[in-house]
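re: that chain from earlier
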Amino acid sequence: MLKIISENKAVVRFLVIFGGLYLILALLYKLYLGMEFSINHFPDYFTHLVSVQSSEMVQVFGYSSKVEPHPFQESMKFFVNGEFLARIVEGCNAISVIILFVSFIFAFYKDAKKTFLFAFAGAVFIYAINIFRIALLAIGIYEYPEYSGFLHGTVFPAIIYGTVFFLWFLWVKNFSKK
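^ sequence. v structure.
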């Protein structure tokens, strides 16, 4: 067993750093979600912020949009042109995806400055893409309700995970330690 580990130091190092950092960040995020939030930031600060910013993005595309706290569920109700379309829940805020992204970047650590800058810039980029994709999903569901399942189940995840994969590829190919 020790021989296998010593022969695969790079893989073991990657797995330990990735897994360890992912567990730490996920635990911190879980603790954050356990905090109490006011109605001003319901259901949690990031989900609320993503909801509001996505609604504002929909308005940039010329639609009327608003969000409001759901009275019975930990989510925000999303409206386009006065029509209730969807609930934005904690999983829509992309924080879990950002945690996954950052863990991978640090597992391929190069030097502090480049790693931190790329992780930060990538997290901001993923966050912005997430706002854009929620806005597009809302408009898509409003304009083409018959495709809502496909848009939410296939297109929606493909955008965010495709972005993460692209950034990972960019990091490994151009910036990480070989």
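The mean pLDDT is 91.
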